[in-house]
Amino acid sequence: QEVAIGLDTRSRLWMNKQLISSECASFATHASYLLWISLANTLHFVPLSKPFSADDASARPASGGGRNLMDLTREVERGSRLVAVVPHGVNVVLQMPRGNLETIVPRVLALDTIRELLNAHEYGTALLMLRKHRIDMNLLHDHNPADFLAHLPVFIKQVDSVDHLNLFLSSLRNEDVTQTMFPDPCRGPQPAAASPPVTATGADSKVNRVCSELRRHLQEADANRFLLSIVTSYVKQDPPQLETVLRLIQTLKEAERDREIDVSEAAPAGPKTASADEALTYACWLVEPDKMYDIALGLYDFELVLMVASKTQKDPKEYLAQLAELQALEPLVQRYTIDLQLGRWLSALSHLTQAGPAHEDRCMKLIDEHALYSEALAEFGARNQPAAVKRVLGLFGPHLQAKAAYVDAGLAFSNAGELEEALAAYDKAGEWRLVMLTAGRLNRSPEELAKLSRQLAEKLKLSGRFDEAALIFVEYLSDFDEAIAALVAGAAWLEAVRRCHLHQRPQLVDSVVRPAVLDAFDNYSSELSDWAETFVKQSARLAIVQEAKRNLPPDSSGKADDADETSSMFSGMSEFSDASSLASGFSASVSMRSASTNYSGISGTSTSTTYSKLSLSGRFKKERKPKKVKHRLSGKEGSVQEEEYLIQSLKRAIP
Length: 655
Fold this sequence. Notes:
Elements lengths: L4 E3 L5 E3 L2 E4 L2 E6 L3 E6 L3 E6 L6 H6 L12 E4 L5 E5 L6 E4 L5 E4 L2 H13 L3 H10 L6 H4 L2 H6 L1 H8 L2 H10 L5 H4 L25 H17 L4 H10 L5 H18 L16 H11 L2 H10 L3 H8 L6 H12 L3 H12 L2 H10 L5 H11 L2 H10 L3 H17 L3 H10 L3 H11 L2 H10 L4 H17 L3 H10 L4 H10 L3 H10 L4 H45 L2 H16 L4 H10 L58 H12 L2
Antiparallel strand pairs: 1-2, 2-3, 4-5, 5-6, 6-7, 8-9, 9-10
Helix pairs in contact: 2-3, 3-6, 7-10, 9-10, 10-12, 11-12, 13-14, 16-17, 17-18, 17-19, 18-20, 19-20, 20-21, 21-22, 22-23, 23-24, 24-25, 25-26, 26-27, 26-28, 27-28, 28-31
């Protein structure tokens, strides 16, 4: 579409018949933007690809003070005039008031040019522009993620620089910069569903996806030449693949040793490739050398450890002596010691369990110190070592007891063969059946079983488990009288009668059960009578209170509420209240001390703190409003809280 853009003598900028601005000093056109400088010395950028309407003009601030997707601005020197704009470039030429010409590169034009380059798959030029203008390199991917990943071979070929590839990889992060930092003003705001921000984590995250895909293409292109970029891709992943980096360097070192030549001189005519030592130095620059040392030590490769140690600040006298001690140990014990040093408890346990019964005591100490009971049971169970399993269960029991898991502790002790400890754990858990079962396994004498049974029955009665106590009295003590007494105490009347007839003791129904039932009936009847009387009395009083409340005039009700709030906030502060009521008629200022009351915390000081003086107009100096304290409802007749108290009391009285 062809349009006519012009500036009249009254500083009005027109696009066809549409007014763009009424305070334009100069203008110029770019391939994608209309640029104009306002009289307020602000350079405006209006996208030409978006249709311009009267609504846009009314919504756009005339003096430029804001920046949005439709109207980007930049402050310029006072009196500056637009001279020229490179149509498909980034340079804008301004004439200063002094007459000199200056060239600026607005960020919006640089971004527009970079987007054009990315659409044309000119990745090398785009990367150089991003680097030159210090623009986030995530734009290379986020501008069109699918297209970028599909053209990674083109990207590698055009960039063709290990340093630039490393710079790109190092700048990657899980964020869509086209949504957060550099939205395209020519397209306007994009819906979230069409281009969601890249914030995912894990294997499917943006960083991991780009690193893995770019690494694959780099390995296909020339793994030796792009070795440092491949290392960067491993380090940048989340989590970093540092072990893989060290394995890669180790493989390269072995290949160099096999060829017995220096890789840096292997192919002088071709591009320079990195050696294993250079790759390790670079990796230690990306990651803390001490961390790399620990990773290398965790691979149990002492040659690799020595390589990494040479890149750290460690004293050779220290780490060489340590490595010598480790090399003198058995292989499995050696790995256990390294795991212990690195805090890898599960790996240490696995290696120590494989070392044989000679190291079982050390293994049990490790298990108990780091609570590896479940993992140890799985390890020893898989290796068919029942004796070790029993020892672990014996250690597991006290740990479970400390966590109040008494039943599980009893099971652990029982499977470990420690029946006395199992019995004590079941007793703490209140599992009387398991207690009696364990006591039977211990071959307790009849006298000991009877004593234990009576103790359990008494404990059950104290905890309200009367039916279970009765069961113990019947089955283990043959004491029917105590069983019936326990059932009666638990109000299990029907069961008590059934037991009387089952054990041919019907006389207990009349001598024990019936009197208890009658006593309970009398108690319930008395309580019900009291409840009913209270309910009727309070219902009648509630009706009176509510009727009186309805008959009160509105102003009286408000005064009553105000009085109640005042009394609740300043209860017990008689001197303070008297002064408050008298001060309104006087112009003198009065200083008062608080009384020794429970409300001294209102002023934020002790009870001896001086209150603020009264002002000349008789009003108190404004102080922080105290927090409302929830008071207990009062049922006193005539009090403001009586109605609420009666309602709550009636709710509680309903069975």
